[in-house]
Amino acid sequence: MLEVFQPIVEFSAPVPGADGAWVWRSRAKEFGTVMLSDAEHVRIARLLSANGRGLLAASLQGRRYLLSQLLGKDASQIRIVHDTQGKPGLPDFPGVSVSFSDSEGWNALALSRAGAVGVDVEFVRPLSWEPMLNMLSEEDEARTIHAVMTGSTGGDTFFRCWTAKEAILKAAGTGLKGGARRIRLPGQFVTCQTDQFSIKHDGLSLIVETHRTEQTIVSRAVAG
What we know:
By secondary structure, the chain is α+β, with helices and mostly antiparallel strands. Helix content is 29%, strand content 25%.
């Protein structure tokens, strides 16, 4: 089942000791033998839609299966906790940072043994992005994004900026609650001239990388 996890950073297979980020699509029966925690079962049961419950179960099982490959531990025995801001952690692996994301059945996981990490994935789809610009950016940056989006090559720009900022905020431990407007992205990134940049945010020095797969845009922010 390793081939279902597509590496998006180091381009390495998920094996014990590996760092990186991976993206995959949930398939309800793919990880049927992976046991979930009581808290995960409660989270699944809260969803009203049977399809939604199936997708979430597959997503959570996939995370556990991938973590088992990276940590060398049985998937059902891995403890995953979340702090008051929602940031995930692995209490049995105190030197390991981890981040999760999902979008429309697609999933991403980033793991780092070198420091804080955040990841965000977005399924590329038609989106009413203009009303969301005010939440994402200050006025001058929003104008630049708008100009690129309405140009001939700007179709991915909103998702690039969104995933990059959310990955940064996840690495900082706050998620979007930390305020996406506080982050100013480099102009070359916004205008799609580069897919990687360095940034300082909330005391962290981060390297941010954005990748386009066939159907998703994924950004990872990692301390470096």
